[in-house]
Amino acid sequence: MSKGTVVLAYSGGLDTSCILVWLKEQGFDVITYMANIGQEEDFEAAQKKAESLGAKKVYIEDLRAEFVEDFIWPSVQGNAIYEDRYLLGTAIARPCIARRQVEIARKEGANFVSHGATGKGNDQIRFELTCYALYPEVKIIAPWRIPDFYNRFKGRTDLMEYAQKHGIPVPVTPKAPWSMDANLMHISYESGILENPKSQAPVDLYLMTKSPQDSPNTPDELEIEFKNGVPIMVTNMKEGQSKTSPLDIFSYLNEIGGKHGVGRIDIVENRFIGMKSRGIYETPGGTILLAAHLDIETFTMDKEVRRIKQGLGIKFSELVYNGFWYSPECEFVRHCIAKSQENVEGKVQLSVFKGHIYILGRESPKSLYNEELVSMDVQGDYDPCDASGFIRINAVRLREHNRLQGFSNSN
Amino acid sequence: MSKGTVVLAYSGGLDTSCILVWLKEQGFDVITYMANIGQEEDFEAAQKKAESLGAKKVYIEDLRAEFVEDFIWPSVQGNAIYEDRYLLGTAIARPCIARRQVEIARKEGANFVSHGATGKGNDQIRFELTCYALYPEVKIIAPWRIPDFYNRFKGRTDLMEYAQKHGIPVPVTPKAPWSMDANLMHISYESGILENPKSQAPVDLYLMTKSPQDSPNTPDELEIEFKNGVPIMVTNMKEGQSKTSPLDIFSYLNEIGGKHGVGRIDIVENRFIGMKSRGIYETPGGTILLAAHLDIETFTMDKEVRRIKQGLGIKFSELVYNGFWYSPECEFVRHCIAKSQENVEGKVQLSVFKGHIYILGRESPKSLYNEELVSMDVQGDYDPCDASGFIRINAVRLREHNRLQGFSNSN
Amino acid sequence: MSKGTVVLAYSGGLDTSCILVWLKEQGFDVITYMANIGQEEDFEAAQKKAESLGAKKVYIEDLRAEFVEDFIWPSVQGNAIYEDRYLLGTAIARPCIARRQVEIARKEGANFVSHGATGKGNDQIRFELTCYALYPEVKIIAPWRIPDFYNRFKGRTDLMEYAQKHGIPVPVTPKAPWSMDANLMHISYESGILENPKSQAPVDLYLMTKSPQDSPNTPDELEIEFKNGVPIMVTNMKEGQSKTSPLDIFSYLNEIGGKHGVGRIDIVENRFIGMKSRGIYETPGGTILLAAHLDIETFTMDKEVRRIKQGLGIKFSELVYNGFWYSPECEFVRHCIAKSQENVEGKVQLSVFKGHIYILGRESPKSLYNEELVSMDVQGDYDPCDASGFIRINAVRLREHNRLQGFSNSN
Amino acid sequence: MSKGTVVLAYSGGLDTSCILVWLKEQGFDVITYMANIGQEEDFEAAQKKAESLGAKKVYIEDLRAEFVEDFIWPSVQGNAIYEDRYLLGTAIARPCIARRQVEIARKEGANFVSHGATGKGNDQIRFELTCYALYPEVKIIAPWRIPDFYNRFKGRTDLMEYAQKHGIPVPVTPKAPWSMDANLMHISYESGILENPKSQAPVDLYLMTKSPQDSPNTPDELEIEFKNGVPIMVTNMKEGQSKTSPLDIFSYLNEIGGKHGVGRIDIVENRFIGMKSRGIYETPGGTILLAAHLDIETFTMDKEVRRIKQGLGIKFSELVYNGFWYSPECEFVRHCIAKSQENVEGKVQLSVFKGHIYILGRESPKSLYNEELVSMDVQGDYDPCDASGFIRINAVRLREHNRLQGFSNSN
């Protein structure tokens, strides 16, 4: 008798294929689920593979549009960035994938979900917190944290042997000496030879972006139009070409960014579980959007709102990195951030060239920029004498402090 | 009889030359003071000019080394950046200049200080708050906020006429259609034709950096060594050349950054007085240092310390931008930030190319990175089963929330 | 010819009566406006006085209900408290008063507003920022900042003389040796003999609360019911009496709090303009509500939402204290706080006795408290083994830190 | 052969006595360790009991003075308070106890430590994070999280039976229907009948404080003198009695606070593991100190430093509550807080009466309060005209916002 049904997040690769067979061995019915979030993949082949390995049912879901609209767009609104550098391309994909996995599990009456994430990483947390949040009664099978499993499969060789024994097609090309995770937003590379934080990343590692040394010698110039803090149109200013659907906009920005080598970073970051890890990322479209959104946001948002919103964005980024997309606090923060974006609209012109983005100009019907007010040539509705009082009052406290307690030294 | 002695921050230009003469007209003795903080300037000519215009005494002070050590270095430690983009090159120069001005005023028994900053900008505030903080009894003469002065000098033409009448040498080259402020850290450009936020900055505007389109086709690779969060050596990895004094390090980074077109930004920012203004900045060395420091800091600092310190750094940046370098709170924040840097040491390797900086690797005797612990291939002192408990406990709250209040919707 | 029409915030007292006459002297038409926000006042007498002094029109507006609903309620939601102690009773009254003043000015086509607030205080700022925010073109006449006025009226004697000369009725009772500001939420006392921060406040100063030494020896027990973070009913648990309208609820809490001597504080606070000032406040109803709201909020709100909301509440309090109720950032923060209150509902039982409030219990249909889960006697849906993993993972970082950098010392 | 040596945090009660015997049963040598942190306890009897049950060695350590100086004093400096209400009396005791436990383990060459904390609480985390932080290689035995143990001892009856079988003296008085934790700082009560958040706490529950209804009808008045943000002397202003050592000061404040019923709270709080729990606390001396410290701090600290320090204090409180006293971030925050206290000195006069504390006055050689500056009667070094400019400049942004985006509505 079956122990129950498991919905397995299946990649088509060696690991999750072994997990599929192993779960069946343990007495589970297995439904495989594969999300298309923009990674390069032969989904048809994967489907056949899953079926041939005994999957009771195979789901292949195109989540690209909802990934852009429900996950990338809120991240753009939040200027989401972890530890000042990482644009969270993997972190925002996980709740997107797990959300659908849970929907399938509920629909199929499955009590279990499973995944192939390792026991040291962030992804296990992101998957599972999403599952628990949206399906509190679910039981999660994480083979890489089950001693029976991980003691049996101590390395790739053990998996290969198991695969051969159980008719699992074995990869013919040798594995890259690092691991990789790809989606519409980015590709991340880590582990293997990248674990030495001093070793430079190989030049042929990058798949999504050209090397800036090989990229075109002429910039592309784009105009990105925003409304409510998200892009609604991108136009190539020279070629005149425009994109207007979220998926098209983001894909086009990836294309342009990739062509010009934009968005490569090599960082050491702090995982939620308290380890530092080294990762290489390329996020072409996301990097362009961050630059453009920062610009239009500052142009249209009151400075004090901006300051508060900046703090919320940092909080948002931490929550997302740590796997709390579906949490009351992240839902709250997303709501507040979205509220802050009501007037964030207008157009930003920028140039993309050799790995870098240059803002060229911006305009907006909602701008708080007042050219006359700020002008050095005309006075506008401004009396310079007011500044004297402003400064004097701001100095009240400083002068008192000097008199009564003194500055500890002059630097 | 003299109304007293004024120490005037003198630039040698038309405005402050007119102010010098005007102050004398008003009955003051005028001491001119000119700070060398790395701007291109003919200091000797300026000295002669001031003397010829009747300055009672002329001070020309080389503050470059203290500007780097006392102002740029703490900013590097704090990853100081205003509104996510501006590296504060002007903001940190002001307290450096005003500090010496006040020292001179005290030494000379002058009750007054004066400057040529305009009435709409940030600089007036930064100058004056520093003066009030360090010399609470000082009286400040800001001609551009005095109706008698600004009504008399409504535009450049009025200044020119006054200059001609009073034997002030008049500039022979036409003024650029924007204003500019230069120091060792950066050059800023604003006003004039740049006031239209949509107009693209002219390509020939930049003086400190080459255009990335014209910059070399081969990167330079640098290794920057940090201790206590500040650079103590920079080495050109190909050429083998090293710099070790603060001023030499920073100047060399400017040279390399400038050569490769690094650090150009075009932004709209929020002034302290509540206006939005448009500025173009180029900060070659500072931009390289920010990237390098971020990297070594994350490599060596505990993640939770980093999070708290990040908040302090944002606060620090706001304070500095607004002119509060010399305030009890900024002194407090600088102390805390410096404390956080005690273990921030090690070497960062990076490449500078076509306007962008690429981190290549890093190493440190104080790193909290543990290659074995994070490895995908060996277990290290880590039990993957622990992660299950970690996730389950983190989910307690999320599951309760789902059961009792529910998520408002699925996105 | 008239210089224009001024809407003067009129209190009926000596100062604003002199201002009324002085404004007429200066050539203005004066409309007086008096807000009833719950202070003890003979409004009819004040009306007559204003008319007799030549007010062109007299407005007396009962703002008590909107003061409670639009200003006190959002403060309750935000647990608004300045510098950990002051409940902002004066600060929230100012935008309420000025909002109506501006409405009247617009309706009457008046270009000017005026008030009697002093030049060292917070109130001038709160009034005027509200006016500028809601009526950007308004011109403000603040006589206590106009040299002609304040040099003429250097003390109370000058005002008395002026009053006698101009037929302004002169107060017959001597002025208390402090100043006072009263409204529905609180009474504040400051200046005069209270300016010495060491002098104890006189026992007979308080008007809104009994001395705890003289208050009843038997507590009152109340049940306060909240919805959306604001009270919708208060019931005296012994007497069975209930109140349900906002104004009735708040007035009743004032009555009970006042009877038991609740809400007296003696503090030194930091004014926006950078001075420290000493104030005595009594806020009976507000103090009860703060205690009750804190309790129901923690009972029904997720802990991480609470943490973020706590930060927003502190920000809100600063903004309100400084006079920024009507600012984009305060509007944004109020929106976010209100959002956080959607599930803050339920009943809190409490006892009021001798100056203190004791929470007795609470219940809520929306509580996130799960009695079974937390029980020491039953296991609930909780596996204690999970805690081991949780702790071990939380310790990863601490153990690494000890090994690689060490704690600086053992305390 | 022994499995090794365990240092067991021993209370003398039924639970840890059973654990002692059970650990021996499992093959461990057991050293008991009992910390005197001010709880009422017959330490001699406990020592004999432990010896009679086979403890290899018995440590009884008087940690009261170091508890006050190393843990309570930093909490006073930080105004430490969790979720606006809980003064952290248990949370700060845990690292104090565990620090010594680890010292003993190291000295005795013990690889193991053990404790009797439950699997749902915060204390297990606080104990263990301290142990891991200070002794990273230590192994922790937490019986209440070991299935063999907790399945064997499902309730008190099982423990009683085991006790009888193994010669463990069984308590003769019936257990209170709640659990209790006492130390010098506070007593906490929770679980049992208190688990229903609506049930009122029994009137006879409190051991450290008198009921305000039965407390004296005459206040005590105290003067507390601070230096570096910690009390250095307390004086009873009527009786003239003074205390000057940290332990004496704190004990005396407990005595006075207890006598007047100060510091009782009934709250629902959020545990680190994500549950809400209900607790009753009494913290007499700590509550007085919080009030006094808040007062002297605001009196002597610059307002902007205070604002930053307030945020650090909230962070500190969360860290301490969650068990991170010994963490790099908490060490960092403590350092920063201590830095902020350098000028926090002076005397606060206060009255303690019927459960409440009333600040009466304060004085300080380091105060930033300037009586002349703030006076309503004299002008001091202040020009009221400056306030006009200050307000006008602060309004620039608000007026622009109104013109360009408008306030969403008038409240």
TrEMBL record, chains A, B, C, D:
Biological process terms in GO annotation: argininosuccinate metabolic process; L-arginine biosynthetic process; urea cycle
Subcellular location: Cytoplasm, Cytosol
GO terms for cellular component: cytosol
Pfam families in the cross-refs: Arginosuc_syn_C, Arginosuc_synth
GO molecular function: argininosuccinate synthase activity; ATP binding
Gene3D superfamilies in alphabetical order: Argininosuccinate synthetase, chain A, domain 2, HUPs, Single helix bin
InterPro entries tied to this protein: Arginosuc_syn_C (IPR048268), Arginosuc_syn_N (IPR048267), Arginosuc_synth (IPR001518), Arginosuc_synth_CS (IPR018223), Arginosuc_synth_type_1_subfam (IPR023434), AS_cat/multimer_dom_body (IPR024074), Rossmann-like_a/b/a_fold (IPR014729)
Domain Arginosuccinate synthase-like N-terminal: 6-169
Signal sequence bounds: none
Pathway: Amino-acid biosynthesis; L-arginine biosynthesis; L-arginine from L-ornithine and carbamoyl phosphate: step 2/3; Nitrogen metabolism; urea cycle; (N(omega)-L-arginino)succinate from L-aspartate and L-citrulline: step 1/1
EC code(s) of this entry: 6.3.4.5
HAMAP family per UniProt: Arg_succ_synth_type1 (MF_00005)
Name of the protein in question: Argininosuccinate synthase
UniProt organism field: Xyrichtys novacula
